[in-house]
Write a structure and sequence with these properties.
Strand order of the largest sheet: 7-6-5-4-2-3-1-8
Number of domains: 1
Pfam family, one: Prok-JAB
Strand content: 35-45%
Largest sheet: 8 strands, mixed
Number of helices: 3
CATH architecture: 3-Layer(aba) Sandwich
Radius of gyration: 14 Å
GO molecular function: metalloexopeptidase activity; zinc ion binding
CATH superfamily: Cytidine Deaminase, domain 2
Number of strands: 8
Keywords: Hydrolase, Metal-binding, Metalloprotease, Protease, Zinc
GO biological process, one term: proteolysis
Structural class: alpha/beta
Distance between the termini: 16 Å
Helix content: 10-25%
Bound molecules: zinc ion
Shape: globular
Order of helices and strands: EHEEHEHEEEE
InterPro entries: JAB_dom_prok (IPR028090), JAMM/MPN+_dom (IPR000555), MPN (IPR037518), VirAsm_ModProt (IPR051929)
């Protein structure tokens, strides 16, 4: 389960719509709680800083960016708890590419983005055997 506020949701949706028709991505900073519950405290957009890269690479967060994100999180007393990205004009369901590049333990929030606005937002967790993703409950935080 992952919990986030309406403001976090809005920030992800705005990023997804701004980058449409390209994919956007960013990190979810927060805390790991009991029984796998994650609480988001901040969102860190990444793809806006990457002009001119191939669209299919935009979701890919490299080791250096991950390291920077971890440092940024730690400076605020937080952890990287997940990654968000958009699926322009496609369902918010992980692709084979997403599966091939997923990291364990993180939440994967995917939002559908269209020219008219943001659509469905779903969160996913990688199975331990990497055979696929399981849908994760997204909880509202005050
Ligand atoms: Zn994807």
């Amino acid at each position: 389960m992952i919990a986030l506020t309406d403001a976090h949701r809005d920030a992800i949706n705005r990023h997804a719509v701004a980058d449409h028709p390209e994919e956007c991505c960013g990190l979810l900073l927060g805390t790991f709680g009991d029984e796998g519950r994650k609480v988001v405290r901040d969102v860190l957009p990444i793809s806006n800083a990457r002009e001119g890269e191939a669209r299919h690479n935009r979701f890919l967060i490299g080791p250096m960016e991950m390291l920077r994100g971890e440092r940024e999180a730690r400076a605020r007393g937080l952890d990287v708890v997940g990654i968000y990205h958009s699926h322009p004009d496609c369902p918010a369901v992980p692709s084979q590419f997403d599966l091939d590049h997923a990291w364990p333990a993180y939440s994967y929030i995917i939002v559908t983005a269209t020219a008219a606005g943001a659509g469905q937002m779903l969160s996913w967790e990688l199975r331990d055997d990497r055979s696929g993703f399981d849908a994760e409950v997204v909880d509202a935080l005050d």
